[in-house]
């Protein structure tokens, strides 16, 4: 039946997600070598996710800032990051006033690019968000299923020189990802690079 097919597909996605989580955490610290604009992979992911969200009557709104600086990231890992976050969000969403708003924007000094995901109706407490991306923390049972996936999210963002955080205000939970721009990353790397070794003076030949 269609229900059985969907259930098998769900299990297959979960298995693939776990394998991807393990690879992401094992590879934490690897420096991505792609300079990308965040809007493209974010749009692509949300375009694929929209029909699934609509079937669950979850309203999705999107806003993309123009002229964002590039970031250094792995596009495939960003897709895995978004997949993990939305798997967690969809599993935790309540059944009243559900909506997800996704936006990309520059930091005030344009040294970073931010992705903000605001979820109305997410059943999570402020206490849970404090260590949400720590796989070794004892969360409430509701988040245990996704502890590894959320840890992989943190590893992927940190690989790109960024940070990820979550906060709750009333009935709204906000995930904020901040990625340093390529210019900011390269400036830091240049400042931290060791100075070239001084060349020994050439010997002077006697006439």
Could you list some keywords that capture this structure?
207 residues; alpha+beta
Quick recap:
The chain has seven helices and seven strands. The chain has helices at 2-26, 39-55, 75-92, 126-129, 141-144, 147-159, 182-192, and strands at residues 35-36, 59-64, 71-72, 99-106, 112-120, 162-169, 172-180. The chain is globular and about 85 Å long.
> What fraction of the residues are assigned to beta strands by DSSP?
15-25%
Number of helices: 7
Order of helices and strands: HEHEEHEEHHHEEH
What structural class do you assign from the helix and strand content? alpha+beta
Report helical residue fraction.
40-55%
Globally, the shape reads globular
Low-confidence stretches: none
The total of beta strands comes to 7
Mind summarizing the main beta sheet? Answer: 5 strands, mixed
Report, as a whole number of angstroms, the end-to-end distance.
97 Å
Please compute the radius of gyration using only Cα atoms. 21 Å
Q: Kindly state the mean pLDDT as a whole number? A: 78
* Strand numbers in spatial order across the main sheet: 2-4-5-7-6
């Amino acid at each position: 039946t269609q229900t059985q097919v969907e259930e098998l597909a769900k299990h297959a996605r979960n298995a693939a997600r776990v394998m991807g989580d393990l690879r992401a955490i094992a590879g934490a610290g690897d420096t991505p070598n792609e300079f990308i604009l965040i809007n493209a992979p974010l749009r692509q992911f949300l375009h694929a996710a929209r029909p699934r969200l609509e079937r669950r009557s979850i309203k999705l709104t999107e806003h993309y800032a123009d002229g964002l600086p590039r970031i250094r990231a792995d596009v495939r890992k960003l897709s895995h990051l978004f997949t993990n976050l939305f798997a967690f969000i969809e599993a935790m969403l309540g059944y009243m006033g559900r909506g997800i708003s996704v936006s990309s924007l520059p930091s005030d000094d344009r040294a970073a690019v931010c992705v903000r995901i605001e979820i109305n109706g997410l059943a999570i407490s402020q206490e849970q968000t404090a260590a949400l991306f720590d796989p070794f923390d004892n969360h409430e049972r509701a988040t245990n299923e996704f502890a590894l996936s959320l840890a992989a999210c943190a590893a992927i963002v940190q690989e790109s020189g960024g940070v990820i955080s979550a906060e709750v205000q009333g009935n709204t939970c906000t995930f904020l990802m901040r990625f340093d721009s390529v210019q900011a990353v390269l400036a830091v790397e240049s400042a931290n690079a060791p100075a070239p070794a001084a060349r020994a003076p050439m010997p002077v030949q006697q006439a």
